[in-house]
Amino acid sequence: MLGTLTGTVYVYQYSATNQTRIGNQLTMVISKTTGTGNKFSIAGTSPKCTGNCSRTGSVTSLAGKAMQAGKTLSAESYYNWTGKTTRSSQSLSWNLTVKHPKVAQILPFSYAGASPVRCDKEYKSYSAGCIMTKGQVAIGYDKGPYPSFARHVSEAQKSGLPGKTTALKRLKAGQSSAKNRSKACPSRLKRPSGLSCDEYPFASTQQGAYYGGGAGRTFSKCNIADKSYPVGAKGAKGYSACMIPQKENSAAGSDLSKFFKESRVLTGDPFYVQIL
To answer: 128 and 147, same structural domain?
Structure first.
């Protein structure tokens, strides 16, 4: 054996929800060499983007760089999303070749990014952008400005309804939030003055009352006296309703719509709900 080389390779990929430039970075941290392992060097690096993407700018070259203990070597490449409107996923990777003066062949290595990068321009009123599809995204509601709404969501989640540890999913194309809303908050439920009916899981999700199925439930202080909405019911299947201040309910709904747009949560996408 001529020697050994020990190190760690990291692949970083990054973009933003309001832009379509995608970064792809390869970083090598060489921690230890033995024997003639300190004679290894990089023969070449080649980045790759598969999907609707085209390279922009120059690529950092590591060709000829010595791979010695204590060194950190990095290369970067950038791409522009070339899609038009509909979402598409891009996969990023790096091909790396290593050589040694006493080894005849070039040694090939391949490293892939941890997550596909999805880009879209499906929101006409918002710029195109990208996300990492394996990342988790959550909307947070502060108890301060939303005391009644936050109490309802918190009690609903404590009763077993999804959203805190199990993701909600936005409705699929063709599904109707109105059907979820009318099932959870039928007109027969009396709305006290200044209050409106709040449903959970949200009407915009596949777990909503109509599509998710199950029975209704409610909680104390919700101002609902209906035998179809028992207090204290538990379980992951079903839905809840609660009468909360109308302005608070509308503002929370507006925040959810803004969150969907700015975080690029599209039809069918998972997301979580946190009470802060």
So the answer is: no
